[in-house]
Design the sequence.
């Protein structure tokens, strides 16, 4: 469909959003929304995208070559997420479709959550709360729910982008931790100093960390970056935290390692095949499980949605996306 100069472009907001985001979009576009938050099949999404020039997605909508071929009017996909493994970016670029994400606005909130999950895990908060709620607390005991210390320990970070750096600063400057990291590319010296972090090889990271936080983006190479072999290299007292993406950890291998005491505990915000959770993870006590909420504060979710909306307006109305990926 050709858009004439007087016609508003049509867009689809694929999931429920803050009402004020729809109010922001409506003067610029013919907006089809999904405030009931119906989970569409790929075929239904294709159907809804007919005649649409733009789509507001979350990490749950897969945008691939098959969808693009079936949606000839589509020009831009604006993801309300910094991660974009739901996009086949190569196929989008080849088809001339603009892709955008929401970097920066969620960095500090997500780093806060990484630390919260680390502390809840190392200090056994979920496990001990379940014990209390079950009415099992009838006395004090010297080793009751004794966990491991955060302050003064060694924090390992795998992946050292914006969120990794924000976590490093909290660890080094707030908790007096020794911070080590592994990343394909090493940070420059000034950034390392600012974060209080030192680059090490991946085996050194696994062997030296008291607590290991994963914050690397998902890619084919990152799949099962932490599996049985990597877990076996970690300290038996170590905690593992995954706030990156499901699939970076081999969840079955992790559940087995937790059961066998290969590592002490894990905190997981993301899962292979989420929202499904590996059944073995639900039966081990020493794991804290949260439903992909690392960026979930009201101001940050609003800022993410606003940036995704600004990308649609910027690109479809003014020819320039704010945070383009291609
Ligand atoms: C999102 C995230 O909540 O930004 C990301 O990459 O994982 C989360 O902040 C999620 O992807 C939904 O869009």
Sequence:
């Amino acid at each position: 469909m050709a858009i004439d100069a007087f016609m508003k472009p049509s867009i689809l907001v694929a999931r429920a959003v803050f009402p004020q985001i729809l109010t922001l979009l409506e003067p610029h576009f013919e907006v089809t929304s999904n405030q009931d938050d119906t989970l569409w099949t790929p075929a239904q999404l294709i159907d809804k995208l007919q005649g649409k020039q733009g789509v507001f997605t979350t990490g749950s909508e897969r945008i691939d070559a098959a969808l693009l071929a079936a949606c000839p009017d589509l020009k831009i996909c604006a993801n309300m997420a910094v991660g974009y493994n739901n996009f086949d970016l190569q196929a989008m670029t080849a088809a001339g479709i603009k892709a955008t994400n929401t970097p920066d606005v969620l960095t500090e909130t997500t780093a806060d959550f990484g630390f919260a999950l680390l502390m809840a895990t190392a200090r056994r908060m979920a496990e001990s709360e379940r014990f209390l709620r079950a009415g099992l607390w009838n006395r004090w005991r010297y080793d009751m729910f004794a966990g491991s210390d955060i302050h003064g320990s060694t924090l390992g970070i795998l992946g050292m982008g914006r969120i990794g750096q924000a976590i490093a600063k909290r660890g080094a400057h707030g908790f007096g931790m020794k911070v080590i990291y592994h990343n394909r590319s090493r940070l420059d010296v000034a950034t390392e100093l600012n974060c209080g972090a030192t680059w090490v090889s991946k085996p050194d990271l696994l062997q030296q960390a008291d607590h290991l936080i994963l914050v690397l983006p998902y890619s084919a190479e990152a799949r099962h970056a932490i599996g049985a072999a990597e877990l076996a290299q970690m300290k038996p007292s170590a905690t593992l935290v995954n706030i990156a993406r499901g699939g970076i950890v081999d969840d079955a291998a992790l559940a087995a390692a937790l059961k066998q005491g290969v590592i002490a505990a894990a905190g997981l915000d993301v899962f292979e095949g989420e929202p499904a959770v590996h059944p073995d993870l639900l039966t081990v006590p020493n794991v804290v499980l949260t439903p992909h909420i690392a960026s979930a504060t009201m101001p940050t979710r609003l800022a993410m949605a606003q940036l995704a909306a600004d990308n649609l307006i910027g690109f479809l109305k003014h020819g320039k996306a704010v945070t383009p990926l291609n």
Summary: The CA atoms of residues 261 and 294 lie 27 Å apart. The radius of gyration is 22 Å. The mean pLDDT is 97. DSSP finds 13 helices and twelve strands in the chain.
